[in-house]
Amino acid sequence: MKIRDLKLYPTMVGRRHQLIIKIETDEGIHGWGESGLSGRELAVMGALRHYRELIIGRNPFDIGAIWQDLYRSQYFEGGRVLTAAIAAIDIALHDIKGKALGVPVHQLLGGKHRDWVPLFATTGAPMGPKLIEDAELLISEGWNVIRTWMHAPGEQRENGDPVYEPWESIGPTAHWLNKLREAVGDRAVLGIDYHHRLSVAEAASFCQKLGRDTLDFLEEPIRDETPEAYEALRRMTHVPFAIGEEFSSKWQFLPYIERGITNFARIDVCNVGGLTEAMKVAGWAEAHYIDLMPHNPLGPICSAVTAHLAAAVPNFAWMEIRQSPTEQLGFYDERLFPVQPVQQGPRLIVPTVPGLGVEFDEKAAEHPEFQPRAGRLLRRRDGSVTNS
Ligand SMILES: [Mg+2]
Questions:
Q1: Do residues 307 and 177 both lie within one domain?
Q2: Model's pTM, two decimal places?
Q3: Helices 274-287 and 80-101: crossing angle, nearest 10°?
Q4: How far is the CA of 119 from the centre of ligand 1 (A)?
């Protein structure tokens, strides 16, 4: 079998773009893949156009060798754009191989450890009574791992740029998280995503304002370029960290795992370089008794491939899903994805059909046209930029 073509489908799904790819073979089998670098689709599409020439004519079963060729085929190897492109190709090749051999993708990864994947829900409720209402709703429907979002009141500057002031966020956020824990007691695991919006001092101050049992995980309190900064923060708080959704290789995970900085691996299969790279990170995390808590903010392709990863590893906590009683974002549009994994409340059933178990309708995706976005800047009240 040979790879015949690589096609790109940047598509608006719900309120977010998904960059979906299709790899076709000369035997009529095709595979679906997805890139995770949301908001920079044009850059990833450019990388994929470079890679198209490298993969056409190759045997799609040679997944590991193709990964190495793509990563090392030019002098300037690595980086988020390239590994997001490699991820999309790697995922599509696993889909092809599973379909060709008549087995679900987790069988290519060693077989399944579990029948369903435990999920966590997110509530974007503002810090206030609605937060506790949302948590009670989720718990009543069987969701016992709940992630929240920081206080960000929605103020805007005169030109419309959103304002975010970290020191004004951490007090109300800690206050309402403490109240939330008081309300739910031991009925739920609680976490918060701070979306790397804090400095070391701000994050440490936030943690000091929390009760000792308030949080089970703190996701991405600061940016991750400097592991030493995270080490400094690690020494200043006892709250477990969940880090890694932006990491684009095993090498980026290396200090976070080996130096004991993160306690959950927030791996993103569509960013880290696909299943080939994700399985290496998973094994490394397993050796350090760190469970995976995969980032899965996109749609059915990312969910399906993450479910196969989750099925095939022993060290697994919970997988993110953006479809729950508190979030209906339209990311799982059945018109665009007529075949997709089955979700039963807080469980994603591990697909058992050959390949990934997801199909995308290219025709349905033709309209509306892809409109690339420049991005959104969060600003301090004084006009300076801050992390978004
Ligand atoms: Mg996050």
A1: yes
A2: 0.97
A3: 100
A4: 15
